[in-house]
Amino acid sequence: MIDHRVRVRPSADRLAPEDQLAWKLAAVATATGEPTAEAAAMAVNRVIDNAAVAVAALLRRPVAVARAQATAHGAAGPGASVFGSGLRVSPEWAAWANGTAVRELDFHDTYLAADYSHPGDNIPPLLAVAQHTGRTGADLLRGIVAAYEVHVALVRGIRLHAHRIDHVAHLSAATACGLGALLRLPTATVYQAVQQAVHTTTATRQSRKGEISSWKAYAPAFAGKAAVEAVDRAMRGERSPSPIYEGEDGFLAWMLDGPGAEWTVSLPAPDEPRRAILETYTKEHSAEYQAQAVIDLARRLRERTGPPQRIRSVVLHTSHHTHHVIGSGANDPQKYDPGASRETLDHSVPYIFAVALEDGAWHHERSYAPERARRPGTVELWRRISTVEDPEWTRRYHDPDPDRRAFGARAVLTLDDGSVIEDELAVADAHPAGARPFDRAAYLRKFRTLAEGTVGAAEQDRFLGTAGRLAELTGPQLAGLFPEAGTDRIATFDATLPEGLF
């Protein structure tokens, strides 16, 4: 890996394109060759995972709205498929609809370091453009691996959350790079696209604060759509605000630590294997990633606590991020509100711990049902749960060694007789270093579980067989990566939506 120091530069310096971070990211993408067998296999896993969570979300309102918007924009040319519609639309709108479907349940992959990310959000725009342009499965795999490489590098090197900037700014840059690798574009073209994408997708984190709305699902889809459009403009010769990262009125100077700060972004050498996708991890439970280990910990503690009514208090000792973003340190009363939205509840670790402790299980729908959240006993327990930041957990969260990095918590439960029960879990059971690391069989089970009732058994088999042969697929065969769902049921649901502009 090569460390690149990035700092703000005055316009008078006339920083050459080749010395800018956007160019270096583009160069990683355009130098990406065929992925290793291990990286390609993991990319296939994530394609399966994305389809699983998208299919499970087809009858959710934000997904249906995005689908309605997309299907109003028919394809000029081959176009790209939309989950649940059976139609092809313009690729940027397919990226929008499919990106929303993938993100809606907060149930796909994650990478956490200096900042946060869901690198699987890169896949919908890449798949849409691959379909539209007739690229092969091998081309798509190359693009996915390149996008993950850039995304992970940015998340490791540049922290956005401390300045309340949403993490989709890193996503749009990674998607533009993935598209460049997929299409084998010149580095100069990808460089322009990266800058346009970052410039147009920088937003605040209010989308993840207070009463969290459906925009949490739309935000990455918006970034993917913007990246597709940026690549289109760059291919047509249009230029961008430059240098987008180092400029004195640019992203780093005004959105982050100011003109005097420096950042280090580590990128692979041109001939170095692209392995970043192997450092990312998916979810067994439909909740914010830092809640994954907490769910597993609650299920384990359930055997020791007895009736939840006996619990006087629960304190979760955890990292800065968990405490301040999904814990009581966020100071969001909505995180303790039984009438809060699903999007808010899946960012409330006190709620998640309470339900997992009571039920000994987690379900992507039942665990968030309004009647479940309003259950009186749950509300009482929920409001006795708090979080505190523990510097040691924060240090472990940011450990540079992925084998030592931890995203869990230590739970201290005080019972009504004054006795105390303590336990901790560093990583989720499904984490690569966990008790039951996710393997291909686990991805297949997750798909079948989430597709049940929406996708027939024969169609599940067909989809999984197609995805398993991704590297061999021709351009027309990429349509097989969209499981056929019960379109009559979906059409009936879509008909209940109010009309918009399109």
From TrEMBL:
Domain (MmgE/PrpD N-terminal) ranges: 21-263
MmgE/PrpD C-terminal domain boundaries: 285-463
InterPro entries the UniProt entry points to: MmgE/PrpD_sf (IPR036148), MmgE/PrpD_sf_1 (IPR042183), MmgE/PrpD_sf_2 (IPR042188), MmgE_PrpD (IPR005656), MmgE_PrpD_C (IPR045337), MmgE_PrpD_N (IPR045336)
SUPFAM superfamilies from the UniProt entry: 2-methylcitrate dehydratase PrpD
Region (Disordered): 321-341
A Pfam family recorded for this sequence: MmgE_PrpD_N
Family of this protein: Belongs to the PrpD family.
Protein's name in the database: MmgE/PrpD family protein
Organism: Streptomyces cheonanensis
